[in-house]
What we know:
Number of helices: 13
CATH superfamily of the domain at 234-369 and 386-408: 2-enoyl-CoA Hydratase, Chain A, domain 1
CATH class of the domain at 234-369 and 386-408: Alpha Beta
Amino acid sequence: MNVKKQHIVLIIIAALFVGFLGGYIGYKTMDPNESAKQQTTDDGSENNDAQQNENDENSETNNDENSETNNDSNDAEDDVPEYMSKVVQAYGLIKENYVEDVEEDDLIEGAIQGMLETLDDPYSEYMDIETVGQFNEQLESSFEGIGAEVSMVDGKVTIIAPIKDSPAEEASLRPNDQIISIDQEDIDGLDLQEAVDKIRGEKGSEVTLEIERPGVKDTFEVTLVRDEIPVETVYSELESIDGHQTGYLEITSFSEETAEEFAEELEALENEGIEGLTIDVRGNPGGYLEAVEDILANFVPKDIPYMQIENKEGEKQPFYSTLDEKKSYPINILVDEGSASASEILAVALQELEYDVVGKTSYGKGTVQQAVPLGDGSTIKLTIYRWLSPNGVSINETGVEPTVEKEQPDYYYSHPIRVEDDSYKLDDTDEQIENIQIILNGLGYETDRVDGHFDETTEKAVTDFQEDEDLDVTGEVNEETGGHLESMIIEKIRNGEDDEQLEEAFKSLYK
């Protein structure tokens, strides 16, 4: 089975492009007098060096909401509540009396950011003029950065998912990795935009991130080389599974062109006579709501909604396709903890059509953001709706649970090897040694134990590896041997070897 896979959280070193996605992929800001496409993704990666989190809403809904929001903003200017005088008073007090000069724009933007922070919502945020421009550029065709969707979670810049074929994916950065410092500078206290500004940069330049990973005692550093990240979102393969012609479609994000690309690839597979289809949204942080709506129109018949939107009053609006009937062949969908927003809309809709969801529980972003311009080129992205499944279920903060749960091999979840001293050797005990043992076993060099104790079988496995790779044969893991172990296990994962989730998905199609 030779399916190209590069998303699963691998292991170790390389690059990440961070952005604003915190929960959805991309969205365009709206002109005060025009609707703009909203996105549903999630994630805060540079969002394409600033991809933001999904604006979930179809264009019709966005038109109505934009109009209402803009009218409300104008009314607010004419009718300022009396209690707002305290804000004006504070502004004047600081401007006139603070011991140092203060920029008026800084005070105003700080007040806006402060109001949004009180919402305790990682997806509602302020984007200044520069960030809006960067964000829109990155949604078009390509952008420069490290390639990872990020969000602010519990006050920490957190990776939602690395982007396919990005430096971040090659470095094995994973969902839920937390960025502690950037170029040895602690980022505690920075907001998401400030952190993203430090991470992004020109192609070919380097950035060093300190990462805190759940389940790993010590933090570790990765140095990433920023690159150009192309926005190519759909990949397809035709596989023969137990004699069945089987289609495989991977969606890496939901951008402007994704639905059209998906339709073209699906048609090509159907022309080949596929008897089953697996859709893969592992590591997909989301994107345009409109894109996932168009994709669902290929699968969800018109007698049931493909999703619902709920406003603050609890009023629900269902959305329907024009499809007459379901596909004649079996379908399932692959998800993991990096699947968010629009990916989850797709997954839960298929699940409620009684198709299998395979893999691990998804991220859990079930809210919709709308971008509203403030008149000077800056924008507020505000959560205004919850999206619900066809049956009216919210997956926010819980995710979509798979009907067929499947983990990857242990080495898929290994992490960078840090050699604290000169080397790890016989009778040493350390958490890093457990990680080394997992990698050795993943590469076929068997050890009797995986508990962090460097025993004789671990020494033999290291010796055999060093002989095969023409390294100095010492039986110890120094920095050179550790680097070779890392690069080889990453390459194995990138080649799709032992992708047990994908194998399970193919197998379950014809059960």
